[in-house]
Write a structure and sequence with these properties.
This protein is of the alpha+beta class. It has helices at residues 2-16, 39-48, 95-105, 154-157, 215-223, 234-239, 243-248, 269-272, 274-283, 286-294, 323-332, 352-366, 379-387, 408-411, 429-439, 444-461; strands at 19-24, 53-55, 61-63, 66-73, 76-81, 121-128, 131-136, 178-183, 189-193, 206-211, 229-232, 249-255, 258-264, 298-300, 342-348, 371-377, 394-400, 464-477. The radius of gyration is 25 Å and the shape is globular.
Length: 499
């Protein structure tokens, strides 16, 4: 009788076990939260590891493995850990893991792309088994953000001689809601639910990543109902799906965390005159770009930080096309029919949106009497001969943004140096001072005020012609329940999902 009940229980579990089917286009290189630099590694690692802190659905920093956090003064942060948080091998997380993770990040023998974020950390000390004291050399605006990184297990890696080549990177032990079950290059990746997850076992038992090398293949699999979640382009959404598709999938559309722009080389005499930059900005019809390139699935970009973020300045309005005013400003700057403004706009292959955008901008600027020559280069050639050496008149490029923006890399005058990302040679002492002031501001409201001022000043100076923000278009199997779309997307409450 007991055997019959047990057999029934096992069969029932097998029948109701649920799988979330996802796709991945490249193999993860290192499933290690401090070494995950490629997109595939980062995506898989997020299921396996937790940080001390995390973002909530609205982009606010809240405890994750931490129970609480507080500043005792402007340079001292105390973090208390939740008790009974277990690694996948059922060992408890303690202060030792925090100290070990920090020491590993700052170890010069290990390549960590974000190590410079910890330059302001003076010391990290365990006060007891569940309490850590972090001291900074000065007030630091990323004092909390740097502890969103996934933790490493001290008890497993303490004697590891070379983390870069460690077996751990392919067989990770984390604290996350899922545990790695199977990983092979260019093949399926299988994750199973963590029965001991500190926030409660995920409702979906298994996550299965199918390897599809390109978006065309994943779109085909989506049409065959072989994927539960994927993304669509605006073209696919607008022209390539039918009623059957919409019967099976829910469309979730939100603003992406990226924008495209035309960067003007401010060392070039053509663009030193603010009247020229204003004229170019007024000659562009940004809404037309959104309508043509994305079938309306996007919005106009009007500054360096995106709508919805806490540093966005909503007092700044989007520029409207005004060809008459553009011609007037160009004439005041010395350009007319007999002496038209001419420049070269460079962008990259492999991105049809940008190439099409360049052609539309060329057409729009022609109406104001501006002649634009378009140059298109293969990505590596574009990067190595145009972008990094800053050898261009104007370029069409894009940036991805984060929830905690750092204006220094793009806008501080010192970022003009080789390797810096102030590509357009923007130089404004007021901006430099505001960026430096912001870097020492830990109060979120005061930081936001400083960055809103940076936003307004950059828009006024026009080193970039900000263009558009594409929408992120996600499709989700209608069989999945309890998805709650937010500013951060849909994955924030995945452990609550049911299928």
């Amino acid at each position: 009788m007991k055997k019959t009940i047990l057999l029934f229980f096992l069969i029932t579990n097998l029948l109701v076990a649920s799988t979330l089917n996802l796709s991945i286009s490249s193999s993860p290189s290192k499933l290690n939260p401090i070494l995950s630099n490629d997109t595939a590694s980062t995506e898989i690692s997020q299921w396996l590891f937790n940080g001390l802190l995390k973002y909530d659905k609205d982009g606010n920093i809240i405890p994750d493995i931490a129970k609480s956090f507080k500043f005792t003064n402007k340079t001292t942060l105390i973090i208390k850990l939740k008790k009974h948080v277990l690694w996948h091998d059922k060992k408890e997380v303690t202060s030792k893991d925090i100290i070990f993770t920090y020491n590993t990040i700052i170890n010069p023998k290990i390549y960590v792309s974000f190590r410079s974020n910890y330059n302001k950390v003076k010391s990290v000390k365990a006060l007891d088994k569940y309490t850590v004291e972090i001291k900074y050399t000065e007030p630091y605006f990323k004092a909390l953000e740097i502890w969103l990184v996934g933790l490493l297990p001290y008890h497993i890696l303490k004697n590891e001689k070379n983390l870069m080549t460690s077996k751990f990177n392919k067989h990770p032990i984390g604290t996350g809601p899922y545990i790695l079950k199977d990983l092979k290059n260019s093949s399926d990746i299988i994750l199973k639910a963590n029965d001991n997850y500190f926030e409660g076992r995920p409702k979906i038992d298994k996550i299965k990543y199918k390897f599809y090398p390109d978006t065309t293949t994943s779109f085909l699999m989506l049409k065959q109902n072989k994927l539960d979640i994927s993304t669509l382009t605006a073209l696919q959404l607008d022209r390539q799906i039918d009623k059957d598709f919409l019967n099976n999938y829910k469309i979730i559309e939100s603003q992406s965390f990226s924008y495209d722009y035309v960067g003007l080389n401010l060392k070039n005499k053509k663009f030193k005159d603010i009247k020229v930059r204003k004229a170019l900005s007024l000659a562009i019809n940004r809404q037309q770009l959104v309508d043509i390139l994305f079938f309306g699935h996007g919005k106009v970009c009007n500054g360096p930080f995106l709508p919805g973020s806490f540093v966005y300045n909503n007092k700044i309005k989007s520029p409207k096309q005004n060809i008459k005013e553009a011609k007037k400003l160009l004439k005041e700057a010395g350009y007319d029919k007999n002496n038209p403004l001419e420049f070269e706009l460079t962008t990259n292959t492999g991105n049809e949106i940008r190439i099409n955008a360049a052609q539309i901008i060329q057409h729009q600027l022609k109406k104001a009497g501006v002649n634009v020559k378009i140059r298109v280069l293969e990505w590596q050639a574009f990067l190595n001969t145009v972008v990094l050496p800053k050898k261009f008149e104007a370029l069409l490029l894009g940036w991805s943004t984060t929830l905690a923006p750092d204006a220094y890399p793009l806008w501080h005058s010192k970022s003009q140096r080789t390797g810096g990302f102030n590509l357009v040679h923007y130089n404004n002492k007021k901006i430099d001072n505001l960026i430096e002031k912001g870097a020492k501001t830990i109060n979120r409201k005061k930081f936001a005020q400083i960055y809103k001022e940076i936003f307004a000043q950059i828009v006024n100076d026009l080193p970039y012609l900000f263009l558009y923000i594409p929408n992120s278009i996600t499709v989700v199997n209608k069989d999945i329940k309890y998805i709650k779309p937010s500013f951060l997307g849909i994955m924030h409450n995945q452990i609550e999902w049911e299928k």
